[in-house]
Design brief:
Layout lengths: L1 E3 L4 E3 L3 H9 L3 E4 L4 E8 L6 E7 L2 E3 L16 H7 L17 E4 L14 E4 L1 H7 L4 H4 L12 H8 L5 H10 L9
Parallel strand pairs: 1-6
Antiparallel strand pairs: 1-2, 3-6, 4-5, 7-8
Helix pairs in contact: 5-6
The structure holds zinc ion.
């Protein structure tokens, strides 16, 4: 996981990318407790095998992401599915990813924006029934309130193979949420 030099999470990177950051001396500091060890070739002179230990959380000297604090994570179908726990937020049915639909709480025709706070995942039946109405007009209740994940939450939603120390690091940056609506 890559952080900016201020310690904010930026993105997931593949180990190949991490290697190039180490070799170009871009690592500012390391914050993980896990290391990924890569073995290189043997040195012809010394016979010693080279080894590179990549930290699971690395901060990078890189100014291109310095506005990460205000960055709104992309509204993507997969991360929305995980944010809403794979459920229809109206009837609570467990959805498969392929059958999930993106529903605008305030319909777009009524000026509802396409943003995290105005979209929920739904089943097809609820989406069709609600149609071009607000939840109040349709007499439907949301099981949880839609929210905009911060970058730490988004990174947790985006990665299914997260290491324990990466998860702990991101959880410290994620706001505590009580998602049950009144
Ligand atoms: Zn439903």
């Amino acid at each position: 996981m890559k952080l900016d030099a201020g310690g904010l999470p930026v993105e997931w990177i593949e180990w190949q990318q991490a290697v190039s950051l180490y070799f170009t001396d871009k690592i500012a500091w390391e914050a993980g407790t896990e290391k990924i060890r890569l073995r290189g070739g043997r040195s012809r002179e010394t016979g010693v095998r080279s080894e590179l230990a990549i930290d699971s959380i690395i901060a990078v000297r890189d100014r291109s992401h310095r506005f990460a604090r205000n960055l709104v994570p992309a509204l993507t179908r997969r991360e929305l599915f995980h944010r809403d726990g794979g459920l229809c937020l109206y009837c609570g049915t467990r959805l498969t990813f392929g059958h999930m639909q993106i529903e605008h709480v305030v319909p777009r025709s009524k000026g509802g924006p396409h943003c995290w706070q105005n979209v929920v995942s739904t089943c097809e039946a609820c989406n069709r029934f609600k149609d071009d109405r607000t939840p109040e007009q349709a007499g439907m209740n949301l099981l949880a309130l839609p929210y905009e994940p911060n970058l730490a939450e988004w990174l947790m939603l985006a990665n299914r193979r997260i290491l324990a120390d990466q998860q702990a690091f991101l959880e410290r940056l994620a706001p505590k949420r009580d998602r049950m609506s009144a």
